[in-house]
């Protein structure tokens, strides 16, 4: 009898969590990885990550973490409504020659709260 009660409780909690997960917003990115290719030294370079909220609730981007040689040029400042499209734009500092391997971490209240975007390429040496 006790095992049945535990089983019913488990099923109820699992169903509740599943239903709540379906009721969240979801950020669907066109691509999570951008290659800038070979970039001339000191040339302004932007990478644009486009996405859409394909979920049932609005999504708020809490914060974006990005490493040293990149700067966020644009990010949504208000919640992204279901069906709404938006973008995140980053600028890479091309004043240093060499390979580019960066991760941009998006933290939100979406069904997948942490998303890692990749940025790769190579800054050519100064002529």
UniProtKB/TrEMBL annotation:
Stored Pfam families: DUF1573
InterPro entries, alphabetized: DUF1573 (IPR011467), Ig-like_fold (IPR013783)
Signal as UniProt keyword: yes
Keyword Transmembrane helix annotated: no
Signal peptide: 1-21
Entry keyword set: Signal
Protein name: DUF1573 domain-containing protein
